[in-house]
Design a protein that fits this description.
Length: 494
Amino acid sequence: MALDSKIYLNAFECSPDGIIICDINAKIILTNKAAFSMFGYEPGELEGKSIQDLIPPHLRDKHKFHFRSFVSHPSARSMSNNMKLIGYRKDASNVSISIALNIIQNDSGEEMILAVIREITEFVRKTEELEKVSDQLKEALQLSALGHWEFHLANNTILWSPEVYEIFELGQAAFSSTNEGFEMLVHEEDREFVKQSYQNSITNQIPYNIVHRYITPKGSLKFLRERGRHIYDSDGLVVKTVGTVQDVTEVQKQRLLLNDYILKLEIKNKELEDYTHIATHDLQEPVNNIRGIISLLREELDSNSPAKEEIIYFIDLIKKASERLSTLIRGLMETARLGQVNPVSEVDCSELLVEVIEGLQFQFENNSAEITYPPLPVLKGYRFELGLLFQNLISNGLKYSKKGVAPVIKIDYHNQGADWLFTVEDNGIGIDPIHKDKLFKMFRRLHTQDDIEGTGIGLVQCKKIVEQHNGEIWFESEPGKGTVFYFTLRKNNN
Ligand code: ADP
């Protein structure tokens, strides 16, 4: 069907895009409605003006150059939203536009320029908003130390966002982008657990959410939370896993600290429970003993007229029992106060040991005992308590010696990274290992008072002191073959 000129004219007038025709000198010949209203003009007002009038003054020189180069090399240029241009309205306001250009000829073969113009203000506004949101997202990712990754199973490829590289403190070249490459980055003690967790989340079709450790190229330890979910194909097979990684080192450190506090609190609670038990049971024993002696004495006084020696005998028994009771109570109080009176300080263990041995001089001479030790290290801890620890172990070595054999105590130590491992060895009667745990409990002894005197408090104090220095204590022994006490002490206790 042939189109008459009215249809052409209507199409021109009614086009939603603005159309401007100008000559090669930039003089506007014709505009449609969309064009003149886009620039705020009345019908016919633009005709005869220069295209330059539609360009913001500060861009006119630049435009002149572009216009000339288009005229000298005319070719159709399509409209693109990426080409953001600025138009200049009659009221001097700006309008965001996109332009398509072409060369046309009139009846007399004169070349003219056809410009199709689209207002893209809304598009530009939305794009700017989007850019803003994307910037905010990037900032949020950075602030929350969050990176994004994708693992494509088919070609074993891992894609990391720039944030992930930052979290791992790695350059692009330092990561092989394969699953094996990633596994090698994970802390070796967590590697198996990471593999298992990923496999488990695939098998059970559940999200992947774990924390693993990572050593940065500079050698510092990081805790990283990895979250991921799987994308399946139509057969239900995993195609890829998309996820995030977040640096949770600080949170994890706080959590570990909190766990440590909770653990310490539980130990304290247990200690309190133990003390309550001791007060109600173990200390009750000497009290009952005293009561028993008193009622015996009373019966004796009621029934006979006892001799003075007999009364003195009973009173001596009461005195002995009450003295023991007060020794036990004192020991108990002393144990409860350990680590609570003086602050930690630098402790030279050699110096400390000399003081301890001086304090035990009488026992050493009385037993013709010997002690050997190398120069001992300096550590940060509770001085009084550390002295008590050595004192209790050495005096036990002297006290539980074999009849007729001079005690020989050997002290030594070994470096164990953050800790010192100490040994206190004796050549005494030894301990049956079945009593291993029992002996570190309050008032637990293997001997009667008549046999070898004691309170059953010494080893409890040793355990408490060692634990206050973040260490452990244990012994190895066989009856008749001497005993070696081992204990570790953190080098730097705060
Ligand atoms: P006490 O020596 O006052 O009884 P301790 O708590 O120091 O209390 O020791 C608890 C028990 O452990 C002792 O009664 C003793 O049976 C045993 N024991 C401790 N040290 C040694 C040692 N070096 N050799 C043999 N037995 C020991």
